[in-house]
């Protein structure tokens, strides 16, 4: 009988070790950022411009996983949605120009780039303050808007 008890001890010790290891892993703090991004958002009370001249007041826009699922008046808010009251805001479809030189002339950028230190990468210009070079151009902005653009990364 004593022999049987001794043969069980290593198995019991192994089992206890695995249990405590599993419990320790579950209690360990998470290193890094937690994923808590809402997957469904409902923007309510917006002024929605569907196309030029077609405006819907008090509309709801439902965005699921980054895609517009529904938009318009009388759209039901899904039960799993994070609701954002956007009363007084206007939403309209538009493009974003991600490669634009709008508002910054090439001459001004070249002149500013000549100042300061150089980098192995000529696109890196730490001495350059783009905000000081930017000059709004209403004629160019108007042509961008007519083409369907709402924003430009300059």
Q: Report on the biggest sheet.
A: 5 strands, mixed
Question: Whole-Å distance between the termini?
Answer: 84 Å
Number of continuous helical runs: 4
Order of helices and strands: HEEEEEEHHHE
Helix and strand content put the structural class at alpha/beta
Mean pLDDT: 79
Can you give a write-up of this model?
The longest helix is centred in the N-terminal third of the chain and has 26 residues, at 2-27. It is built from 4 helices and 7 strands. Strands 1, 2, 3, 4 and 5 form a 5-stranded mixed beta sheet that branches. The N and C termini lie far apart (84 Å). Strand 1 (40-51) and strand 2 (54-64) form a beta hairpin. It is of the alpha/beta class and 154 residues long.
SSE topology sketch:
Blueprint: H1 2-27, E1 40-51, E2 54-64, E3 67-72, E4 82-85, E5 90-91, E6 95-97, H2 106-113, H3 130-133, H4 138-146, E7 149-152
The gist of it:
By secondary structure, the chain is an alpha/beta fold. The chain contains four helices and seven strands, in the order αββββββαααβ. Strands 1, 2, 3, 4 and 5 form a five-stranded mixed sheet that branches. The protein has a two-stranded parallel sheet with strand order 6-7.
């Amino acid at each position: 009988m004593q022999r049987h008890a001794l043969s069980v001890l290593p198995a019991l010790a192994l089992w206890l070790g695995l249990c405590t290891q599993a419990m320790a892993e579950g209690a360990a703090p998470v290193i890094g950022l937690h994923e808590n991004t809402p997957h469904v958002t409902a923007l309510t009370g917006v002024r929605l411009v569907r196309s030029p001249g077609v405006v819907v007041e008090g509309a709801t826009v439902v965005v699921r996983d980054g895609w517009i699922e529904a938009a318009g008046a009388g759209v039901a808010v899904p039960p799993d949605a994070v609701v954002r009251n956007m009363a007084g805001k206007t939403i309209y479809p538009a493009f974003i120009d991600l490669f634009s030189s709008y508002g910054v002339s090439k001459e001004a950028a070249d002149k500013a780039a000549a100042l300061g230190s150089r980098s192995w990468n000529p696109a890196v210009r730490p001495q350059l303050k783009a905000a000081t070079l930017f000059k709004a151009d209403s004629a160019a902005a108007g042509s961008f808007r007519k083409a369907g653009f709402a924003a430009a990364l300059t």
